[in-house]
Amino acid sequence: MDKTQPHPLFKLATELGPLLVFFAVNAKFHLFVATGAFMVAIVAAMAASYVVTRHVPIMALVTGVIVLVFGTLTLVLHDETFIKVKPTIIYGLFAAVLGGGLLFGRSFIAVMFDQMFNLTPKGWRLLTARWALFFLGMAILNEAIWRTQSTDFWVAFKAFGVIPLTMLFAITQMPLIKRYHLEPASLEASEAEAGDVSKG
């Protein structure tokens, strides 16, 4: 089934919406109620994405599964550590997949981003390495914040810090993307180049 491209604001809403729900419910009640609301909002966002685009991005799917698992552990065991360490697990997993892929000559960043653009093999490698380092940095940052700051500060950072930092980093990668961008007509040549590199 073909995917349809949603409006950028729809994509932003499905990504930011659950975080805003998490922040608002935590402010009115407490972290455990917010965790339950966050889980419901994540499922709703994935369902909305599928209804509108007939597709759920792989990153959103992986994130959703981990949220549900760690959210359930948080509620069942009544231990907020699980939901706080959840972002560390997600970022660490993404960093490991991207970095591990590079070791085997694969650039999984194209899969994670649904191949929104076409790059040369070198461009994919550089972009993958940069995002792997970014996710590793975000994992370390999450650990530092939840271990040293209050729960309210950590929740606010999740809602209003993570998305801006990710968008800012993505914007800083635009020069690299433009430098190694391929027009559709050049894709066949790029694939041939990639094949030659792998044989060398």
Could you provide a short overview of the structure?
By secondary structure, the chain is mainly α.
- What is the general shape? globular
Estimated share of beta-strand residues: under 5%
Instruction: Classify the secondary structure makeup into a structural class.
Output: mainly alpha
CA radius of gyration is 18 Å
Mean pLDDT: 84
Q: What portion of residues is helical?
A: over 70%
Poorly predicted segments: 185-200
How do the helices and strands follow one another from N- to C-terminus? HHHHHHHHHH
Question: What's the number of structural domains?
Answer: 1
Helix count, DSSP H or I runs of 4 or more residues: 10
What does this structure look like?
With 200 residues, the chain is mainly alpha-helical. It has one domain (8-199). The chain has 10 helices and no strands. The chain is 80% helix and 0% strand. The protein is globular and about 50 Å long. The protein has helices at 8-28, 31-53, 58-77, 81-103, 109-112, 121-148, 151-160, 162-172, 174-179, 187-199. Helix 2 runs antiparallel to helix 3 and helix 3 runs antiparallel to helix 4 (81-103). The model is unreliable at 185-200 (pLDDT under 50).
Tell me the layout of helices and strands:
Elements lengths: L7 H21 L2 H23 L4 H20 L3 H23 L5 H4 L8 H28 L2 H10 L1 H11 L1 H6 L7 H13 L1
